[in-house]
Input
Amino acid sequence: MSVVALACCRRLAVLLPFWAALSLTGCAHIMPTTPELSMAPAPGSDAVDPRKPVMIEARGTGSRLLQVEVLDQTGKRLAGKLQDRRYVLSAPLDFGMQYRVLVRAENMLGVQRVRQEMQFTTVAMPRLEGGSRRVLDPGNAVTLRFDRPVGRITAIGEPSIEAQPDEERRAVRIVVPHPPEDRPFALTLKWETAEGVPLPPLVLELERTAAPPLRAQLDLQGRSRVGVAHPLSIAFSDTLADREAATRHIQIRTADGAPVTGRWHWAGERRLRFMPQPHWPSSTGIEVTAEPGTLRTTHGGTLEAATLGSFTTGPDRRIAVYLDSQRAVALEDGQVVRSFKVSTGKPATPTVTGSFYIYARYPLKTMKSDAKPGEPGHYVVENVPYAQYFHKDYALHGAWWHNGFGRPASHGCVNLATRTRNRRWPNAPEDAGWLYEWASLGVPVTVYAKTP
Output
């Protein structure tokens, strides 16, 4: 007997008892099924998480896997574990890699066999452009750019960061609020793909640029004859790191070292104001200094010099306006220097009462109301002489368009007699001009409803 015939006989000898058993149990009608293959991830998937294992299973009664090969796009075979009906390839896989899966399976009788090829692709790792060594900008930040969108970015350990991605998430500004000073440092980032797949930690080597120095500009710097009520304003070139503590490190003293008391408040992100209480000492030099190294910007810059600036106050001059008597007086060191008839606001447009100071002065000024043309109260007056504003749009100024001083006649301002541009009353006293020359910025103005 030939070798082939002998093999066939042996095969039949094995199968005959099996079929006989099926016949005896009434199952002679059951036929072998074709093996069905399943794979996770699903065939054809892209952006597959490389952390998850690959699993292949043969389904169908008595089906089993004969062989499974997994090859990457370079042709390298990966070793997995095959156990009868299931094959498992443990993670991790490579990022951005396409894999081919070749599978052979058969049913329980070995009569029907299948061969199938499947493929999948793992998610690609975003590529950082420009390398990992970076220099922080003056805002303690660095912008990272990637070749594809990225997901969430956080810091591992210290220092902490603030991640600010752009709309496409391909550029992320990394802010390091408190970087180590005067030395390079490593920053380890925990990040993920746009699909939420965690990526290996990203390590950056960072160093700081030299922060620009802090500059402080006094609005009264170098001025003389400053009125005793004028507030001091300090404008900083950058935002201070500790704005609330800044006032504790700034000293305001007279030239002989006496401290000046007052009230501080922030008038903006970078502007600090000081209001002397009750007023500046008159005819005195004022110096403003800061403790070295105490004022620091959010970028690490400090003042180059401890002295912020200086100015000189003028005599103790003040202006009082009495609405009941329609008079104003100029006082120096508490003594009346000159008295004027004035015209204050009419009943429909009264003059404000209270304590103020001259904050702006103009030899000539065009004055106009907020009302639009045609609306009640609209006016535009050009060439108003000697305007000295003391509260919002309220001012002391000359009025050449009327001669009724001593009674209310204005829209709220304090009118004084003037010869400037005065054609109807050329011999009027030059009260407005005298007061303009006598006063200065910061001179207190107090408006009383009644004469004390």
The chain has four domains: 36-121, 133-208, 216-312, 317-448. Confidence is low (pLDDT under 50) at residues 1-29. The helical segments are 3-24, 431-438.
